[in-house]
Hints:
Elements: E1 12-14, H1 20-26, E2 32-34, H2 41-48, E3 54-57, H3 66-69, E4 77-80, H4 90-95, E5 99-101, H5 108-123, H6 126-134, E6 153-157, H7 161-170, E7 176-180, H8 196-202, E8 205-208, H9 222-228, E9 233-236, H10 245-253, E10 259-262, H11 273-276, E11 281-283, H12 292-312
Parallel strand pairs: 1-2, 1-3, 3-4, 4-5, 6-7, 6-8, 8-9, 9-10, 10-11
Helix pairs in contact: 1-12, 5-7, 8-9
Bound molecules: (2R)-2,3-dihydroxypropanoic acid (DGY).
(2R)-2,3-dihydroxypropanoic acid binds next to loops.
Amino acid sequence: LPPIQPALPPAVLQPAPIHPAVTALLAPHVPLHRLWEQDDPAAWLREHGAAIRGLAVSTLAGPVGADLFDRLPALEIVANFGVGYDNVDVAAARARGLVVTNTPGVLDEEVADLAVALLLATVRQLPQAERFLRAGGWRQGPFPLSPTLRGRRIGLLGLGAIGKAIARRLEGFGVDIAYHGRTRQEGVGYPWYPSAQALAAACDTLIAILPGGAATRHIVDAAVLAALGPEGVFINVARGSVVDEAALIAALQDGTILAAGLDVFAEEPAVPEALLALPNAVLLPHVGSASVQTRTAMGELVARNLLAWFREGRALTPV
Length: 319
Ligand code: DGY
């Protein structure tokens, strides 16, 4: 028998701004409260927190965990905008019996496109070439030659849905593909390596596309970068936490590796000055999934998770 839903009517709290698709889909059905617009958020939580049954969050809300959960005694569900959910303390949520949802499936192709775009931009030095043209450098002579992508040995750090979408695209580029994940996957033809370091030693290019969080923190460290070697290119479309950023900066400064393309950083939206100063780093402001269509689909999935929970007591994409 389905569980008996509590008499408390559904109400959702947004601690920070979120995509308008979330609001558009939810608002006709469920009251939505915007915490960041309250003069005194702590006082608002004391007065109204007991009425909140759902949270809609994204990385913009910062880390979400026990602090907030404890002020929302009727909370049942935390709906995260993003396939990655390292911004949510899932252990604290589980300890309180909360459901956590994310947005898988709707952004795989978009992030894979961005990974390949960033790889090409980094290897062929496209942002540098564009800056050169705008600064009038072309009048003095041609832009220096770049390395080629063809023939590169590309290691995918992570072979989930997005990693596989990246591999499908790379098939057309005349490169070799290998991967590291916790386990070797049945039916995958690419060579598997048991560690990030073993993968780096066998490759000259690493693309990080694995979940953030404690289990993968600094999986790319100084030793992995050294194993990648002086022709090495490191691409990160996962989370800033998967790489030791200080070690990466040092490796880019002293030629341990050739270049990096980064869509994610340890302390977003802050980017270390030392990275900004590096000519061999291509830096993007976490735009992997940031197309109009994909962000709308993500927002709708956040809203549909909340509505399905309130209506049927069953979330669509629990983590
Ligand atoms: C995700 O979905 O995890 C992307 O990084 C956007 O936050």
